[in-house]
Structures are given as C-alpha cells and as structure tokens.
Write a structure and sequence with these properties.
CATH architecture of the largest domain: 2-Layer Sandwich
Number of domains: 2
Number of helices: 7
Number of strands: 12
Largest sheet: 7 strands, mixed
Helix content: 25-40%
Shape: globular
Strand content: 25-35%
CATH superfamily of the largest domain: Bira Bifunctional Protein, Domain 2
Strand order of the largest sheet: 1-2-3-7-6-5-4
Mean pLDDT: 91
Length: 262
C-alpha cells in the first residue's frame, strides 16, 4: 500500500499536493476522475487505486489491474488547451512516464505511438486520455496511466508481449517512489504545455524518445489501416506513414511492426 502522508510531503509545490484521492479498489480511476471533473474537481486532482475491477485502455480494451501489482493512476488537468492541440497531450504524458520510470528504476522506455510504453519489444504500460469541453470552450482532460510493476506472468495471446518492472529489473520495484516520480514528471510536462514553444516541441521530443516514429516499417490498424515506413510526427502529433500510394497522416488507431501480430 501507499504511504499517503509521505506522498503529500513529497509532492509539495506541485499541482497535485492536497489533491490525492486513493481507493483500495475501484472500477476505473479514469471513470472516477471523469465523474469528479464533471462535478467541478480542481486541476491537479489525482485518483489512484491498488486495484481496478474495470480498468480501460484505448479503443475500449480492458486493462488487467490486479490488486497490488501495478500503478493505476488518473490525473485531472484543466489547462485551457484548444481541442486542436489535444492530440499532443498523450504524447507529453508518454514523455513524463518514460522519464519517471527512468528516474525511479534506471530502465529505458520506448514510446510506441500513440500511447504504448515498451521496454525492448515488451509492453509495460499504456496511457488513456479522455477529454470533455465545457460550455463550448476548453474543458478538462483526464490522463490515465497504467504501469505493470510486480506482475510475474501474463495472459497468453497478447498482441504485444508484456513485461513488468520487476521482471526487467530482476528485483522488487517500489511503487511509492515510482508514483512520486510520475507525478513530478506530469507536473513538469503540464506546466510546459502552457508554453507555446514547448508545446510545439513535443513531436520532436517524442521522435527522439521513440524507435517507432521514424524509419520503421509498420502496420497501422484502425480507421486509417495501411502499411508503410514512419516519417515522424506532424505539428499536431499525428504519425506520418509513407505508403506505396503516398503519405498518410495517421490521426487515430495504433501501430505494430509490419508482419507482426495485430
């Protein structure tokens, strides 16, 4: 379990201090955060749990969230971002998670556009961003993050082989410093999103942190299904894929290595 008083002390000076909401078990931390946001919860509200019974990933995929095995956290952000810039938010969150895992464990994380966190070829986490406008203007966004920490085995037949921090480290990874590092990194990235120059620099930062968004032969699955070579991200954070028939700016969906399982 987490030491909530120690968490509060460690997060002093961030947007999250005084806004921590922990449940031993919940259906989905993202659902909790979205409901609280609609009731007026403030920017920086954090919802995290030891277990999720209905955890969700992108595309209505379930996220297995066994008790005490992973980090399951959702953060409410009220940044006033226009909807046209919202696709950059999950990319910024990916940068934050990669930095947090590196700082807490020394492990290097690869970012697979748009929301997968990989260590080598194996998936160790994912990001789900949900947003809602209010009264026709900028509203709020909820950034949900799931990280495999203590799992020793995974269900067969996964599209991408999975791993956990424990398996990669060969030892027990403490979730408390990982959560602190994650929220510190998210606080840093959230502040940067308010700076137009920093916002514009996110696609290049992701490209430097990822082996997937340049010179990688991929299969795109989703509404814009195609196969081609990745050519970086455009200013909106969309993935450019050079296909046999031209350049595609992939706005939604996911990618796998060409010829691999979908």
């Amino acid at each position: 379990m987490y030491d909530l008083s120690a968490l509060e002390s460690a997060l002093a000076g961030t947007a999250f201090a005084g806004n921590l909401h922990f449940e031993p078990a919940t259906g989905s931390t993202n659902s909790d955060a979205m409901a609280a946001a609609r009731e007026g919860a403030p920017h920086g509200s954090v919802f995290f749990a030891d277990e999720q019974t209905a955890g969700r990933g992108r595309g209505d995929h379930a996220w297995h969230s066994a008790a005490g095995q992973g980090l399951y956290v959702s953060v409410l952000l009220r940044l006033g971002m226009p909807s046209s810039r919202m696709p950059l938010l999950p990319l910024a969150a990916g940068l934050a998670v990669a930095a947090a895992i590196r700082n807490a464990s020394g492990l290097a994380v690869d970012l697979r556009w748009p929301n997968d966190l990989l260590i080598g070829p194996r998936k160790t986490g994912g990001i789900l961003v949900e947003s809602q406008s209010e009264h026709g203007g900028p509203g709020f966004a909820v950034v949900g993050i799931g990280i495999n920490v203590h799992q020793q085995s995974f269900a067969p037949g996964l599209a991408t082989p999975a791993t956990s921090l424990d398996l990669e480290l060969g030892r027990w990874a403490d979730r408390q410093p990982l959560l602190i590092a994650l929220l510190e990194s998210l606080d840093h990235e959230a502040r940067a999103l308010l700076d137009p120059a920093a916002l514009a620099g996110i696609p290049d930062r992701v490209a430097r942190a990822s082996t997937w968004v340049r010179n990688r032969e991929v299969e795109v699955h989703g509404p814009q299904a195609c196969t081609g070579i990745t050519e970086g991200l455009d200013e909106h954070g969309f993935l450019r894929v050079r296909t046999a028939t031209g350049l595609v700016h992939v706005q939604t969906g996911g990618i796998r290595a060409a010829g691999g399982p979908r």
